[in-house]
Amino acid sequence: MTIPLTEHPETGATGPVHALEVRGLVKHYPGVKALDGVDLVVRQNEVLGLAGENGAGKSTLLKALVGLVRPDAGEIWVRGEKVRLKSVVDAADHGIGMVFQEQSLVPNLTAAENIVLGSEGPGVRRGIYRWDTMRRLAQEQLDKIGSHIDPLARTDSLSFAERQMVEIAKVLRIEERTSNPPVIILDEPTSVLESKEIETLFTQVRRLREFASVVFVSHRLDEVLDVCDRVAVLRGGVSVGEMPTADAVPTDLHRLMIGSTGSDDHYHEGLAERSADEGEPRLVVKGLCGKTFRDVDLEVRAGEIVGIVGVHGSGREDVCRALFGAEPTLAGEVTLDGQPLDLSGTRAAVASGVGYVPAERKIEGMVGPMSVADNMTLTKQKSRCAGPMVVPQKQASLVDKWIERLSIRTPHRGTQIGRLSGGNQQKVVLARWLVAGDIRLLLLDHPTRGLDIGARSEVYRLMRELANSGVATVLLADSLEEAIGMSDRIIVMSDGRATTEVGCPSGGKPTPLDLVKEMV
Amino acid sequence: MSTPVIAEPASNPAAEPAIVKGGPTAAQRVTSFMPVIALVTLLAALTIADPDFLSQRSLTAAVRTSAPLVVLAAGATLVVLCGGIDLSIAALCSLSTVFFAMWLPDVGGLTILAVVAAAGAIGAVQGIAHVLLRIPSFVVTLGGMSIFSAIALVISDAGPIRVVDRDATSWLNLYVAGYVPMSFFVAFLVVAVISLVIKLTPLESFVRATGYSESAARLAGTPVDLVKVAAFTVSGACAGLAAVMLASRNFSGSPTMADNLLLPAVAAIVVGGTAITGGHGSLWRSLAGALVVTLLRVGLPIVGVPSAWEQILYGAIIVAAVALTLDRSKVAIIK
């Protein structure tokens, strides 16, 4: 695939020497092709947006650009020079710096210390900190972005937005290492900011463009279109296109992100059998409080899929875990089919017929070195036992049955689950809750994270089938589109509270923008 | 300015191979046979150094010496499989020898059971402290080690206590089938029974899941805490049984009798190839590891190495064995 050279939107200059260029970058992880031949061009003094769904390969690409990930194949060119980036320091020497999604400042140091940390230069002489020099160096950095933060303020006393400014000031230290204008990567910089703070950040980004190139990554398409000159889209580890933002609308971008396969019945809505408002609620949550959420009310009927949406920090993941007994609760009543639900621990939840699929599949969802069979029967041990003893034949026939029913692609039931592809791993994790046939409530935390489109579709189909068999489902979707496509109702959470409920029946689905309005 | 450039990927992203990696690597294969290779190599080397070594008499003696170590390492292996470590086994074993010598006159024939039960209970307390107070097992058992040593010194008046009734444990000095020392037979039986119970019940899944990924095990609803407490209980009970073997051989109990067995026991576990990070391994491996360590111990004087070098060797063995077996991809930060 080639990306044609186009004129720079502002200078009008055509030039083959780009600030940064990526050619055919490939990175495979066991079970996942994170990058499968990515091409990307970052021009001088431009803000390039990088868009793509979860699992599209954005994070891996960014990590490759700052030397945290070694690509399996492909080339990275900085200002017409081919480079091999071995570490963050190496990347900094080439003028590439990144502001990380999870903030990477040391909270109990001052802003000045954080800014010069790792590149103290004249701030340290003979191993001794020279505070006035440090302060001056930090102030220079803060002046570059026109920030008025006190360099001697302790970092944990600053607001999120201020800390972000400190991060940007810190990353601009790479200017000391190279004579060329730097490339600054901002990974989801707005996810924890409020709208006023976002404006400040955008002003900052536009200021950066005066002397640097910026790569801006965000889930919010309107932001990308607002602040970027051009946007490149990744899907499934491949560059699928790019467009100038001047004449683009979010739907164009979105179509590019999810691909054309998203247009037909991707979410298997045709399979949904149940009609709304049928029967008694299976799960009733009243006034549930925990460390990160308060007064959450929630009802889910048998056979219903209820999505919970919310931005980072809305507390929806913790509500999900609390319902599974994996997160302590402070107050509230929860009943399942009229019986009080014991939230004291995961064992109690399992015994009540509650199942949970965690977002972090590789760490929390499965035990990688154990076999497909042992992972599948890990929870419902009775399903493979007679009395206290495991009966291998019983396990074998049960597991083989589910491998066939869910069309899990594995050479054998004894294969280590870590060797399967992501989609097949997830199907085994889901099967864990199904083998005993006693599941009543299924809590799905990002069940399609990191899966390719084909595997997603199979997980969606499975969710529909489970719902049709009467399982109540709570879904924390990977994207708003997924939440809308799969859910019968959507609860919007914000700052730890369930703020709105949006009906989401087949044929009367809200648009992502409708939901975004409720979320902010 | 032209219209947006939209290019479709040529390849179908759904056409992902089901299997990404192949079988075990060469290094994994070597480490899985490591204890057997080490055992055979050692035997061969010692036989070359001293052709008399491969006699029934010296082999019987070596195997009998290994019995307490086998039991000690077997119990601690369970804790390691669960992802923890039990540093208190040697101190608890010493304390148990004191218990044994002190209780024998009063309790009589049931002393063995009483000592094993007491040591098991002490192990359980450590397990409960680890689970309930959420303290790393390393810290709990390091504290335990110091406490048990001190208790042993206090109740024994800091000296050995003679075993008055030698008949209570004389059966341990018999031979099975004429050649196999009873103490080693018992150690073998302990390993076999524990291994079998684990193998035939869901415990194997529970222990491995806990060791490989505790959070995954917990979120799958397995009884993680119970399994850990059980592992510490068995580890403690094994220390008690090892104490009975030591006391019966030395005809006394002493507050420092087993203290020098901690390093050999840990060495036995890691030489056996059980992953120090948990999940992978078995008690049988530790049995083989304990034999390797014992052979080294009795073999060093044969090849003329002063016994003072023993500790250096254990230290080196542990570091080398872990260096060979540690799966660094699993451990994000090596502390």
UniProtKB/TrEMBL annotation, chain A:
Keyword Transmembrane helix among UniProt keywords: no
Source superkingdom: Bacteria
InterPro entries, A to Z: AAA+_ATPase (IPR003593), ABC_carbohydrate_import_ATPase (IPR050107), ABC_transporter-like_ATP-bd (IPR003439), ABC_transporter-like_CS (IPR017871), P-loop_NTPase (IPR027417)
Record-linked Pfam families: ABC_tran
GO MF term (any one): ATP hydrolysis activity
Keywords, sorted A to Z: ATP-binding, Nucleotide-binding, Repeat, Transport
CDD domains: ABC_Carb_Monos_I, ABC_Carb_Monos_II
UniProt domain ABC transporter: residue ranges: 20-261, 273-520
Protein name from the UniProt record: Ribose transport system ATP-binding protein
Originating species: Nocardioides cavernae
UniProtKB/TrEMBL annotation, chain B:
UniProt-annotated location(s): Cell membrane
GO cellular component, one term: plasma membrane
Membrane topology designation: Multi-pass membrane protein
Keyword DNA repair belongs to the record: no
Keyword Membrane: yes
Top-level taxon of the source organism: Bacteria
CDD domains on file: TM_PBP1_transp_AraH_like
Pfam families in the record: BPD_transp_2
Transmembrane segments: 30-49, 69-101, 107-125, 137-156, 176-198, 226-249, 261-279, 311-327
Swiss-Prot/TrEMBL keywords: Cell membrane, Membrane, Transmembrane, Transmembrane helix
Coiled-coil ranges (or none): none
InterPro entries recorded: ABC_transp_permease
GO function terms (MF aspect): transmembrane transporter activity
Protein name: Ribose transport system permease protein
Record organism: Nocardioides cavernae
